[in-house]
Amino acid sequence: MIHPIYDDPLLWLRPFPAEPRNLLEKHWHEIAISFIFYQVLYYLSAPICAYIFGSHYTHEISKKQRINFDIHVVALVQSFISILLTLPLFKDPMWKEDPIFGHTPFSNLVSALTAGYFIWDSIVCIQHFKMFGLGFLLHAFAALYVFMMAFKPFCQPWIPAYLIFELSTPFVNINWFIARLPDGYVSTKFTVINGLLLMVTFFSVRIVWGLYAVVQTFADYWPIRDQVPGWLALPIFALNLLLDVLNMYWFYKMVLIAKKKFKKSKSNDEKLKKSK
């Protein structure tokens, strides 16, 4: 009997096939539901932003910037959903029992919902390539590939170890909004606290924990490597390492921005002292 927390409440919504031959056929509808949900949320983001940010959003920024605001609203919501979906998986016994091939209805659901988001994210990164660049597109493609391969099944028990990266994403998105709002719109104290939480969580979960997770996943895979095709396993580990490198690069850029802001703040304080 499956514990209720590891069941799949959306499984009954599958219109076809009646007898799926594999996990992807069994959960394809959840990928579609997820994609549609995020697309609808994207359409709703414009009125949400107009309500929250007022005339700054509706009149003071360009159409391109408004699109960016809308996309970041979707990313913010997705990060909270991912965090909530991740927490039950950390207590899933299959992590110890079968860390490579293990799966439950709930872990399949999480894989499907996450894959749906990254399909949406990949399309957005292609549509607005000039806005987001190659780094974000590679991130979207890599994440999509990893979560689609989870339906083989492969490394589903390790999903929470990688989805927990999203713990830093709310702070990333809030910081992004703050940087694009007028001075004084958000208090300095709130900005500083959010910035510190961003740096701490990003470094902790995406770099320190991220590297540890890749090494430990590989350690679980190595003893049974003969049971897994090389074309399946090696690209996934390579892509996870690529994501770790991207996270290091983004953290490096965060540090540079933080140093620049600190120097600017220090310079302004010195000017104020001299003027007194």
UniProtKB/TrEMBL annotation:
Keyword Transmembrane listed: yes
Coiled coil: none
Residue intervals passing through the bilayer: 31-53, 73-90, 102-120, 132-151, 157-178, 190-212, 232-252
Residue intervals of the TLC domain: 64-263
Key words of the record: Membrane, Transmembrane, Transmembrane helix
Principal subcellular localisation of the protein: membrane
UniProt subcellular location: Membrane
GO aspect biological process, one term: lipid homeostasis
Identification of the protein by name: TLC domain-containing protein
Organism from which the protein derives: Komagataella phaffii (strain GS115 / ATCC 20864) (Yeast)
